[in-house]
Specification:
heterodimer; A: 228 residues; mainly alpha; disordered N terminus; B: Phosphorylase Kinase, domain 1; Transferase(Phosphotransferase), domain 1; 2 domains; five-stranded antiparallel β-sheet; three-stranded antiparallel β-sheet; 9 helices; elongated
């Protein structure tokens, strides 16, 4: 009835258990690397190579020196804390003019793909903070879509992908049904099930991405707009 | 990872929030309003073929215990059958844990949209007092009374809505719910709520819907109802309503002591016909006397 309670990766990042810490870090990177990189590129107008190096160095530093443990849930959201920490890190890098070299095992970050995404994004208005918030929301939803893809029945996911993800060619329920060879009712039922599961996964991701109940609730409201 | 366009993110935001009623007799048609406690939708009851309003509360964010508590509360509110209280048709939990209520769909205006003379506003307000007083008699405190939560129907109905944060009299809650500006100090502090908590909100409502330059007795009624200290408020909604009725009938009110001029003026206003006859008689007498002595 209620979303499965997942442990906060923010808390797990401070764990003494290396395996647990590594797993938490993987989720942390999956969720945040792209918003951080794009933030530097678009909102802070940094060059591709600089942004790549800074993002990798920052993430590696987060893992190695445990700087995320300084987060205080009572002061700000983790997202805001991370952005400010990143800003400070980049500013110090510039001052020192001695950029750290790429660290950690982060070669899997697909910066080329991130650049393609930047070229396809249209909404770049608002403050740097607004941009980071938008990219963070995109990252949460993208991760949730990937998890849904991994666990869902292939046909049902294809239905969800066609109707809810392809905004350029959104057809009617009837047209979608004809395309999949199923009735309109089967389309609405299938979509309802996928959306229900998608919502549950989004809540899971937010539970992982936040450090306290208050922050979790605030982020759910911010992302799903429950508040006026 | 899949790249999602801005439109796709926006669409997913909507579908992730959209309640799934596919397992029920209701079909969501459109969104009517949203607030801190949840979203209200217009829906169709496909069994009875009628339109209803469904409020979906954000209870999935709370604990299972909290959802259970809210379900009990819905049952309690369902018992409040009164012409001034919006009837609850149905309630349940969505598959994702969110609690919902199906209510009568009221078409009309919200109280804060009503632009009318003071006397008319007060007559509407007395109808609100009747409904709230009925709830208190059944041990329920509304806890979120404000002009936006009162609907005026096209056929003269006055309905108190949004009982989503109602509590049993004497309850205290660590989760502070309500609307700032209408919440009594004890409610803001999470202390025990009772009928006087709603009396405070009704006083704040009067201030909100009436003009600022009120006659002194009426201003005193507002001040007494929304006094910060419980003991300084009216002891009940009925007592508040009595004072308002008295003011409308040019009678003395308990919240304000008239001076002599005001007493005379009120007596004159109340006995206008008698005063007119006496004055006419006196004028006639003066005319007759003047005519006799010319």
């Amino acid at each position: 009835m209620f979303p499965t309670t997942r442990r906060s990766v923010i808390a797990a990042l401070a764990s003494d258990d290396d395996d647990q810490r590594r797993r938490a870090f993987d989720t942390f990177v999956a969720l945040y690397w792209k918003p951080l990189y794009k933030y530097l590129r678009v909102a802070r107008d940094r060059e591709v190579a600089d942004a790549e190096d800074s993002t990798q160095a920052f993430l590696a530093k987060c893992f190695e020196n445990g700087s995320l443990a300084a987060y205080d849930a009572g002061k700000a959201s983790f997202r805001t804390f991370l952005r400010l920490l990143f800003d400070r890190f980049v500013a110090n890098e510039l001052k020192a003019s001695s950029r750290q070299k790429r660290g950690g095992d982060l070669a899997r970050l697909d910066f080329e793909n991130a650049e393609t995404e930047i070229s396809r994004e249209h909404d770049r208005g608002g403050s740097p903070e607004d941009y980071f918030q938008r990219e963070w929301a995109r990252s949460v939803f993208s991760l949730a879509v990937e998890r849904l893809r991994a666990e869902a029945d292939a046909t049902r996911f294809a239905l969800f992908e066609t109707y809810d993800l392809d905004d350029a060619n959104r057809a009617t329920y009837r047209e979608t049904g004809e395309r999949f060879g199923i009735s309109e009712t089967a389309v609405t039922n299938g979509l309802a099930a996928m959306r229900r599961r998608f919502r549950a996964i989004v809540l899971d991701v937010l539970r992982e991405a936040t450090a306290s109940e208050g922050e979790y609730r605030a982020e759910v409201r911010s992302l799903l707009g429950v508040d006026a | 990872m899949t790249w999602l366009s801005d439109n796709a993110v926006s669409h997913l935001r909507e579908v992730a929030e959209l309640p799934d009623f596919s397992h029920t007799r209701y079909r969501i048609k459109s969104e009517i309003a949203r607030g801190g406690m949840g979203v209200v939708y217009e829906a169709e009851d496909v069994e009875l073929r009628r339109r209803v309003a469904i409020k979906v509360l954000a209870s999935d964010l709370a604990s299972e215990h909290a959802a259970e508590h809210m379900r009990d509360e819905a049952r309690t509110i369902a018992k409040l059958e009164h012409p001034g209280i919006v009837p609850l048709h149905d309630a349940g939990l969505l598959p994702d844990g969110r609690l919902w209520y199906a209510m009568k769909l009221v078409r009309g205006w919200r109280l804060d949209e009503l632009n009318a003379p003071i006397a008319e506003l007060l007559r509407v307000f007395l109808r609100i007092c009747e409904a709230v007083s009925f709830a208190h008699a059944n041990g329920i405190v509304h806890c979120d009374l404000k002009p936006e939560n009162v609907m005026l129907g096209d056929f003269g109905e006055v309905l108190v809505m949004d009982w989503g944060v109602a509590r049993e009299t004497g309850a205290s809650d660590a989760t502070i719910a309500g609307t700032r500006g209408f919440m009594a100090p004890e409610q803001e502090q999470g202390a025990i709520v009772d009928a006087s908590t709603d009396v405070f909100a009704l006083g704040a409502m009067m201030r909100a819907i009436l003009p600022s330059n009120l006659p002194r007795p009426l201003a005193a009624i507002c001040a007494k109802a929304s006094a910060p200290a419980k003991n300084d408020r009216y002891e009940s909604v009925r007592a508040l309503a009595n004072d308002i009725s008295n003011w409308l009938g040019d009678q003395p009110v308990s919240a304000y002591r008239d001076n002599v001029v005001e007493r005379i003026s009120r007596w004159v206003s109340r006995n206008r016909a008698l005063v007119t006859i006496v004055l006419a008689y006196l004028i006639m007498r003066v005319i007759v006397i003047l005519w006799v002595h010319r």
